[in-house]
Structures are given as structure tokens and as C-alpha cells.
């Protein structure tokens, strides 16, 4: 999940660097109101934590997918190496099944986090 605010002048999306899961934690981290400089128009504006919106992070999703593919590839390889042919097909099922299961769990958890963040107002 990534957090961002929109520039008050040019509407450019400015990323907010924070690991906070909700606005209360974000307020503790940055203060209830904080200033940010827009990288696009260089306007310095004050933002309230309620201006911050959480969104799905494309980069983290990609990272999760990459890690999963590596892990499942290793599992599939071990199956191939240590088990006979019939079991190898189960290995292939695992190879396809596990990443999609983990990704859907991860995606659901992230969606929940995002809606929690966006609902909770400080
Ligand atoms: Zn701007």
C-alpha cells in the first residue's frame, strides 16, 4: 500500500513516505498537519493527514509476485529432482497454484488495509 496527497495547486500526485497503517499513526509520524513540496510545481503546501489517500502499490505487488515465483520455482525444482514423474505433475500444480493463492491473500489483505486507512479519519 502506498500513500499519497494531491498537490493543492497542480493536482500532481505526491507520494507520502510512511509505513503507518492508519491516519492516527501517520499523524504521530508526520504530525497532524505537515508540509510537502510538490516536485512538479515546487509549491510548498500544508496537508492534513485526512488529505492522505492510500492506494494499491504496483511496485509491492510486483515484488510479491517475483518472490513467489522464485520460491515456487525452487519447490518445483525440488519436486523434479527428488520425486518421480507422477509427483512432478503435482509439483507443477503447486507451481501454478501457490502463487495465485498467496497473491489473492496478499491482495485481499492490502485492499482491507487501504479501505481501513481511507475510512479512518483523524
Ligand atoms: Zn504541484
What structural keywords apply?
3-stranded antiparallel β-sheet; 122 residues; 5 strands; 3 helices; binds zinc ion; alpha+beta
What does this molecule look like?
- The structure is a single chain.
- The longest helix has 35 residues, at 85-119.
- This protein has 2 domains: 2-55, no CATH class; 58-119.
- The mean pLDDT is 88.
- A 3-stranded antiparallel β-sheet has the order 2-1-5. A two-stranded antiparallel ribbon has the order 3-4.
- By secondary structure, it is an alpha+beta fold.
- It has 3 helices and 5 strands, in the order ββαβββαα.
Topology:
Layout: E1 2-6, E2 13-16, H1 23-30, E3 33-37, E4 44-48, E5 53-55, H2 58-82, H3 85-119
Antiparallel strand pairs: 1-2, 1-5, 3-4
Helix pairs in contact: 2-3
Bound molecules: zinc ion.
Zinc ion binds next to loops.
